[in-house]
Amino acid sequence: MEDDPLKHSVNDSSFKKNEEPSKESEELKINREKALLRKQQFQQRMSKTPPLKIESGDQLDDIPYDKYKNPLRQYFEGKITISLDIYDRDRFRVKGVSIPEDIIQTIDSFGGKLLNESNSWTVPLSNYYRFRAEIYRRSTAEINDIPRFVILLMQNPNSSMKTNYTKQYEKVPSLESLPYELKTKMYPFQRDGVRFVISKHGRALIGDEMGVGKTVQAIASAFLYFEEWPVLVICPASLKFNWRDEFMKWLPQLKRNHFFIVESGRKPPVDAKVWIISYTIATSQQTLMSAHNFKVIIADECHYLKSYTAQRTKAIIPILQASRRVILLSGTPMISRPAEIYNILTALRPDIFRSYFEFANRYCGPKKMLSHTDFSGISNAKELYSILNSCLMIRRLKSDVLSELPAKIRQKVEIPAEAQQCKAIRKIYSDVSTSKTNSFPLLEGNQFINQAYLLTCQAKIVGVCDYINYLLECECKFIVFAHHLEMMNAIQEKVEGGKVKFIRIDGKTQAEKRQDLVNEFQSNKDCKVAILSILAAGVGITLTAASLVVIAEMAWSPSVMVQAEDRAHRVGQTKSVNIHYLFGPATLDEYIWPKIQAKLSVISKALDNDCNPENYSLFNPECKLGFGDFDTEDLFKEIKHFNAFS
User: The Helicase C-terminal domain covers which part of the protein (predicted)?
Assistant: First the structure.
């Protein structure tokens, strides 16, 4: 049978196609053998070449890697990858998979130490430049390098853009310059916090957990730069008066005329030493603050600046960057992700943190999406922790300093009181004091007290809700006690508005449901708030999941409030318990507290021989943590001379 020419044609074509890959494979094999030979020759030559002499202070861009760069890298790029990151203040880490022996020898030659984790070594940070250069010229490994801004920060952990050029002429302050009482009443760890701020030339983040005492550390640090005052305090609106009281308590040489609480339309007094402004007002008064060129600024709860798109962030960050001393305070500088802390870092060190995307690509676990890059994750967490704690922030948890803290820490928090209700309280007193009987009915059950107690509740509602909102933004887990249903309803409305899970126990709560609510608060981390009646829920329940207790309304009996405090301070509590008493000036609170102290004194002498340490802060609250006391004058003397009504 005659052969089909088309068949031969197809077969020939197929044969040629099969031949070509074989030819290419042979050529590739020869090229690889030649490349391996060149690599061996190159490594032999490099082993005889003296190492590069690179000083630790040289800039990355000045290192002539290309001069000694391995010419075989183009054949082997990507075969081996090693990653570098900061391990702690003095060392960086080298890690990778299947690292060859020649690289391990290089690591050892630069003082590397093997970590417990596999394929990871630490190397002294002083050897970083020389190590990096040696790896580039001796191997074909691909390096995931440490970003330049991180290296610059580790090189200059204590300098700042505003003080570096004057550092050699600047007199470094000392704790010995602090007033004696302030210095002696501070705990040792608080003095360490002030020393940290000094070491950073007045630009630092105090990130201590709530209840450890950030306020006193900030005041002491700011005082050391008194020659550069006036000082500007930026804080939540609910804390403005509290900051004024703290300054006056710790620095008694300051009088009321030395303070200026900034409000729209008000002009500052000439002799104002301390300016206090809320974040809301600061947003609208950017021009005013910029014009005064404050050299010392305290920003309390600085996590309020976490959103780069927020107007207050855009208004306040440039003012912080331009100031010479910036003391930032926050127990939660990072609420949920690393991206939130960038604004704080660029406020402290604008010379280092210049690009959000550079920071986010390193620490925010970038994920490429269809239309954008998602920066809501986390990456290089160990390195971020290291640079924060080495160069920018001091942070202590309650558990770290528990041995130095008392079991209970009571704090007076002054909140604004509505003028209308305060005037009504004054009028009732005026009517009673000028009556024909000229009686002075100050018993709890009489008409004056009942009316004044309700008016006090109404006067404090706005201030209490503002403070509750502040705690919600801090994502605290806390218990709040109140007496009137009107107050409890207002608190519940505020919590519901914040879309936060809560429980509520009052006189209407059925007995069989109480324990279910308690279990919910104790076991559910997302259940952040317990709204409790101080009479109906002040006894018989355990709520140790929270270490913060807020007394929104004071009770008449000291034992009632101590019982309320002990819902959190009891067996099973592992932290020091903070109790915040929300105090309304020119309300019945001015009268209740001294009476409670007198009653408790009688009880303590009879039952405890006046030796119960837990009562000391009720009698005469210590201010070691920067908290105010309750040493107020009688209500009626205060009202009579109260400036707002004179």
Answer: 466-619
Identify whether residues 388 and 430 lie together within a single domain.
no
Contact in structure between 422 and 236 (CB atoms under 8 Å): no
Q: By residue range, what is the domain housing residue 397?
A: 164-402
Answer yes or no: are the C-beta atoms of 298 and 234 closer than 8 Å.
yes
β-pairing, 325-329 with 203-206? parallel
Helix (H) or strand (E) holding 235: strand 231-235
Q: What is the CATH number of the domain that holds 361?
A: 3.40.50.10810
pLDDT along the chain (646 residues), means of 10: 40 41 62 69 51 41 42 51 90 87 88 85 92 82 89 82 49 89 90 95 92 90 95 91 88 91 81 92 88 93 90 94 94 86 94 93 90 89 92 88 75 87 82 56 57 90 93 90 95 94 92 88 94 85 90 83 83 82 86 70 59 53 33 38 35
Write b or e for each residue in 183-214: b if 16 or more Cβ atoms lie within 10 A of its Cβ, otherwise e: eebbbebbbebbebbbebbbbbbbbbbbbbbb
Strands 548-551 and 577-583: parallel
Cis peptide before 252 (omega within 30 of 0): no
> Do 396 and 198 form a contact (C-beta atoms < 8 A)?
no
Whether 50 maps to a domain, the answer reads no
- Is 1 a domain residue? no
Residues 376 and 486 in one domain: no
Q: What's the structural domain count of the chain?
A: 4
